[in-house]
Amino acid sequence: MEHVSVLLNESIKMLQIKDDGVYVDCTLGRGGHSSEILKRCTKGYLYAFDCDQNAIDESTPRLQKIGDNFTCIHDSFEHLKEQLDSLNVDKVDGILLDLGVSSPQFDDAKRGFSYRFDARLDMRMNQEQKLDAWTVVNEYSLEDLCRILKDYGEEPFAYKIASKIVEKRKMKSIDTTFELVDVIKSALPNAVLRKKGHPAKQSFQAIRMEVNQELPQLEVVLKEGLKRLKPHGRMCVITFHSLEDRIVKKIFKEVAVPKKVDKRLPSLGIENLEYQLVNRKPVLASKQELDTNYRAHSAKLRGIERNECNGQETN
């Protein structure tokens, strides 16, 4: 299945791309957003991150057809600061993040992301890292399994599933996605199994997020990215579930929304904030996009802009 970039037009419009601007696509994927950025910054430059070498290999020819003013960086966006410093890139005009797993990763059975295909438990976006889903499932303690299923999967039966995993792996390691699905199903009541939707969805999400450290890395890149923006530079983030959106909303609010004060106290004047929200409510996919791209149903787009710094820089 071809990967279709979600909220493509909306995010590109929100970035307000300048012809000579410098931009960072933290989630290159198959190059949908990066291609549109390159088309609009013919005199500028694009830096595109992806920890999946397959994504870089497939996207590079697509970008080369547009121009040569780009650099692909094989690394997690968590290392945004270190990588841009090494390239002597100080401030940028825009940063884009399209979070989640791309369709090619889900649809490649051997990557072990999906409960729809039988494959060795893997789920690594970066194939060079050591931690994989097999290690999480077979070596994490009962307490840690329960924690990630609760925190990352919001799974109401986290303890029962974690207990069943520990019980089963004492007899034999849980090696494949289908074996894990069977274990998860065996821990759930029939009433849950009869419900619409796959019973392993939340557990697989939780394990994938643990393997790739998605939420801790998101916090890092948001905070570092905000520091990199030039005045009037923008950061746009597309999320696909509530955990991601909650983090983006919280960090944006911390720097762009005035703190609530006791109205009975004397006013000290208007608070000068370094950033402002581009949109208070998230941008959602249009009906037209929803009809053609199922992944867009849960997508939310939020943006933030850096104000004039009044002579002060934040490091």
UniProtKB/TrEMBL annotation:
Q: SUPFAM superfamilies, from UniProt?
A: Putative methyltransferase TM0872, insert domain, S-adenosyl-L-methionine-dependent methyltransferases
- Taxonomic lineage of the native organism: Bacteria, Bacillati, Bacillota, Erysipelotrichia, Erysipelotrichales
Stated name of the protein = Ribosomal RNA small subunit methyltransferase H
Q: Which gene encodes it?
A: rsmH
Q: Which GO terms describe its biological process?
A: rRNA base methylation
Q: Which domain of life is it from?
A: Bacteria
Its cellular-component GO annotations read: cytoplasm
* Function noted in UniProt: Specifically methylates the N4 position of cytidine in position 1402 (C1402) of 16S rRNA.
Extract the coiled-coil ranges from the record.
none
Q: Which family does the record claim for this protein?
A: Belongs to the methyltransferase superfamily. RsmH family.
Q: Which Pfam families match?
A: Methyltransf_5
Q: Respond yes or no to whether keyword RNA-binding is given for this record.
A: no
Q: Which organism is it from?
A: Faecalitalea cylindroides
